[in-house]
Amino acid sequence: MGILAFEEDFKPITLSQRDAFLPFFVQNGSFTNGELGENKRMIKTVPPPARKNMHITVVEPRSKDDEARLKCMLAKYLDTIAQRVNYHIGYPVNIVYEHYATLAPLIRYHLNNCGDPFIENTVDFHSKDFEVGVLDWFAQLWEIEKDEYWGYVTNGGTEGNLHGILLGREVLPNGILYASRESHYSVFKAAHMYRMEFEGIETMINGEMDYNDLKSKLLRNKGKPAIINVTIGTTFKGAMDDLDAIIHALGECGYSHDQFYIHCDAALSGLVVPFVKNVPKITFKKPIGSVTISGHKFLGCPMPCGVQITRKCLIHNLSRNVEYIASVDATISGSRNGLTPIFLWYSLSTKGRAGLQKDAQRCIENAARLRDRFRGAGISTMHNENGITVVFERPRDKEFVRRWQLSCVRDMAHVIVMPGVTSEALDNFFKDLVQERAMWYKDGRDQPPCLADDLGPNNCYCPIHQQI
Ligand SMILES: Cc1ncc(COP(=O)(O)O)c(C=O)c1O
């Protein structure tokens, strides 16, 4: 079967960029730029163990040795996370921060973008000029004119969802929130926080919304407007809800444009979709109200952040004058991180659309290869077309799960092939899984789990279904 000759099957990508920017390592108690030896340590096949709790406490400074002690603790922490960076394959974070060395001097300043991005602060320490540059880029991507959109750089996808759904509720105060059961937990949180009437929509086996169930619930609730959360890249299976099918369903059920509001949660795959075929385009030329992405996911940023874009004609529903900050506020949070717009601006400007397209293609191809390898090894698996998420059977050993920092739901786990997940990391992971799995199931007393219900019988290779 040749399952261990894996290297050749993944497209190689350079590790050197990230390694060249390894964080500070300590030598003899002082910080230095890490080089050379660290690379070897990061690429070794046997993963370093999961990091242990350092049980940090705050103690009053006592002597001048204290500074060295603090540096030492920081160094230990940095060393641990630097070693673990190539084993970060279970959560959607792009850890290629090629730009952080250039931008590091910025952390000396408190940059705060409190309030409306389009209204300058009364203090100089903000980055709203960068923020508006980033927002303009996304407005262009999602086809809405500069003078017709409003948006802001959020603290992440969750804040974007909280904002989009709140705006939907303000536009349609007695609207019912519809979301598939594979939606991110922040959507259910929004329903709870805003005390909204909620309809959960069933999903298909691939994680996509079940449009027939949506239609039957839309018809049942015909007297009330609909606020619909559309997920472009579901959290666990990476499925993309079909925006066009949802708009069509609304029309078929007799909902006119003023009776619905669509929020697109594109936190995970918003920057993959523009570069793939057969997925409905996200565009404000369609009757949508808002779109959000997470900035630290596919694009990559060392701090959590996101982008939220909506229609300018709607935002007055949330805007309030705030004399204290001499601004208008329509955001969720008060103080906002002024560093993240600069990181996003820098990432977009250095990668460009061509760079993002290359990242998307490579991630999708590597995800498909990983799925094929799982299949070849008789491991239950599923991968949505154009997706970067590969779902597979939950590893039996908790230590293995922790070692590879995997997220597990029921009997499933997943790998999310982000731009920072190298072919070497996938290779090491696969080898490790195959070797360990052979041990878990060697004497036949335990069997791999059945995933027919979660992934469909065709994707299940449990002892019952592999024989069908
Ligand atoms: C589909 C989806 N929406 C929203 C979020 C929340 O994003 P964040 O973690 O940036 O708040 C996630 C995070 O995984 C997600 O997968």
TrEMBL record:
Tell me, what is one Gene Ontology molecular-function annotation carried by this entry? pyridoxal phosphate binding
Q: State the UniProt keywords alphabetically.
A: Decarboxylase, Lyase, Pyridoxal phosphate
- InterPro entries given in the database record: Group_II_Decarboxylase, PyrdxlP-dep_de-COase, PyrdxlP-dep_Trfase, PyrdxlP-dep_Trfase_major, PyrdxlP-dep_Trfase_small, Pyridoxal-P_BS
Which BP terms does GO give this entry? Answer: carboxylic acid metabolic process
Residues bearing the modification N6-(pyridoxal phosphate)lysine:
K297
Q: What domain of life?
A: Eukaryota
The keyword Lyase is annotated on this UniProt entry: yes
Q: Which cofactor does it need?
A: pyridoxal 5'-phosphate
Q: Name one Pfam family in it.
A: Pyridoxal_deC
What family does the Swiss-Prot or TrEMBL record give for this protein?
Belongs to the group II decarboxylase family.
Q: Which PANTHER family match?
A: HISTIDINE DECARBOXYLASE, PTHR46101
Protein name, as recorded: Histidine decarboxylase
Organism of derivation: Cuscuta campestris
